[in-house]
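Repro:
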Amino acid sequence: MRVTHLLPLAVTAAALVIPDEATADQLRLEEPQEESVTWNDLLGWKEIRSKAKDVVSSVFETSHTTIDEAMTFGSKLGDEVKQAMHHCGGGDHGNNPWNEKIFKTDPRDWLDDVEEEVTDHGHHGHHGHHGHKPNQTIYELIKSSKYTTKLAELIDEDGDLVTVLNSTSSNYTFFAPTNHAFSKLPEDMDPPSKEAIKKTLLYHVSPDFYPAGRVLLSHTIPTLLKEKELGDFPQRIRFGLGFKGLELNFYSRVVAINIFATNGVIHGIDDILFLPSSTLDTFEFMPQYFSTLILGLVKTGLWHDFNVTAKAGQTFFTPDNIAFQKLPFEVTSFLFSDRGLKYLKAILKYHVVGNETLYSDAYYNAKKDTIDGGCDIPKGFFHIDLPTLLDGRPLGVDVARYGGFIEIKVNGFVRVVTQDGIAKDGVLQGVSDVLIPPKQIGGGHDDDAEKEEEEELTVESLKERLAPFVEDQEGEEMMNEL
């Protein structure tokens, strides 16, 4: 058994149920010692395999009848995982320099081996396990818990939502912020409007049934919030698994799971899920990653164009600063010069797909009629050609799905390294390289694309590839000069 398969097992066990903040402080692992990591340290993780399997099994087979009971269970489970890790000399591996290499792929890759078991547990319905048949609705469970009193107060102000959470005609999933989540809000923040509160609460509810096992195999899930700038499709929540636990939208963390109700299931979270920002606002929030992209959008005028254009969803294949640094220096210098801006504009337009939103596991197309708000991407291999803003020049996207593991490649060889950045008006898919239109249109194979990639990109070869998309503009500029 490879070491890389053992570590995600421990992560999965720790991530499924995390105690609240106060308990987590008590369970915090010791600080790492200033010493090198040896293979003996890594191989020591083998000893936790048996323990971790027992813990994972107990999570999949455990249901709770109250939120308070689930929080208590989380504390006990966290203690068991901590003891197993310390027994093996694991310490706090969150700062371990090996982690970046070990977890280069999503830890959910390990879940391929247990998908059948997880799926089986995930469809027991809202009757729970071991005879724990629920007798309260989602609303009643939230109302009766000491951990969700602030949430209950907000829900009580929205009669329509109370009706939904009390209805037993459907099974819902509610990601419930704890009182501790509300305590993180700034004391001097302006009170949100009733409409904003309603939208935020709807963003915490999925119209489908997602117990823990199914959540672990999901990358995104739909909510009750219909977003106009997505073409009135459901806004989605993004899930990711790491050493900090199961995270929603990169920041909120699951602290309790599988509180089953007569009309669905509740999972407790330690941060409120704020409504997603627009794509451009998201870039502005993270200049350390996207300053080069921002500069390009501003210099070419696309920033203004995107701001004033009405949207019905979009997919932005997002190159970060590192992706731009991979371009030859002379090419980057040319693109950001006055003479090269028209070529830079063409390249950036080639990264954007309008009115079509492609998540790693779902697809929205505002240009086609759909019955249930888009479609799920099937397991196995899925290919789609997405027309970009560059005169419809398509991007060939391949999605490979195996259990909880999903790999996305663009034009045969460019990897999506950060999947599913949720935005108000679409989704951000972080790509490893700046996308350059290939020489041939369609009908090519992956090996042809790779050969083009291996060829050294020069200013002249770049201008040759982009000539069909900028020659009209060049002609207009020449006429203006005359």
